[in-house]
């Protein structure tokens, strides 16, 4: 099953919206060095806020879940689509839903979503008492629910996966960070702020916190000149959310 992946342009636009809102700035893309000479290893975008004389060198990369994911991952992706369609616009805030690696076939996604929507309004005190994540049982399925934003109206599911399932993803992350960091070095030396934006295709299959930890643990001396690394999650660039690794 093929899922829509946001284009590089969509991810750049989503990043600019996030960045300008966070910094109350007016950055825009002013050039695409990688398109000038395809034979050179150049960065994806130069972003500038001309009012502040600020420049950012931006590299965008996509990290992939296991190539051998197989039928179970495809079925889970279908489950996610049906669940998200059920709950979207019906909850107050943005939530991360962690579910077991294998969801029982009896757990129909629309019915599951309906019960979770009914349960959410009474969870305020539990979130306040326990912090970010609370355990729940919905339709006889043990889950973890985390409130990640007070704005928005969506719930993003991810699977709770054992550490050995993350090894292939970690290898892919390390290779991509190394390749992107090399291209940013000359820009850092010229005074640019340097960014790697990582789009996680694994967001419905791996808990975002797991992806964040993998990216963070993969950064070393070879990436010291990279000022910031962010992980973008979501089925489309505009509707996703940022996890800032550094």
Element layout with pairings:
Layout lengths: L7 H16 L4 E4 L1 H4 L8 E5 L4 E10 L6 H18 L5 E8 L8 H11 L4 H7 L2 E6 L2 E9 L3 E8 L6 H23 L3 E8 L7 H11 L9 E6 L7 E4 L2
Parallel strand pairs: 3-8, 4-7, 8-9
Antiparallel strand pairs: 1-2, 2-3, 4-6, 5-6, 9-10
Helix segment count? 7
Structural class: alpha/beta
Order of helices and strands: HEHEEHEHHEEEHEHEE
Number of strands: 10
Euclidean distance between termini CA atoms: 33 Å
Instruction: Output the strand order for the largest sheet.
Output: 1-2-3-8-9-10
Level of helix content? 25-40%
How many domain modules? 2
The rounded Rg comes to 19 Å
User: β content, as a range?
Assistant: 25-35%
Which parts are unreliable, with pLDDT below 50 for 5 consecutive residues or more?
none
The best one-word shape is: globular
| Biggest sheet architecture | 6 strands, mixed
Average of the residue pLDDT scores: 85
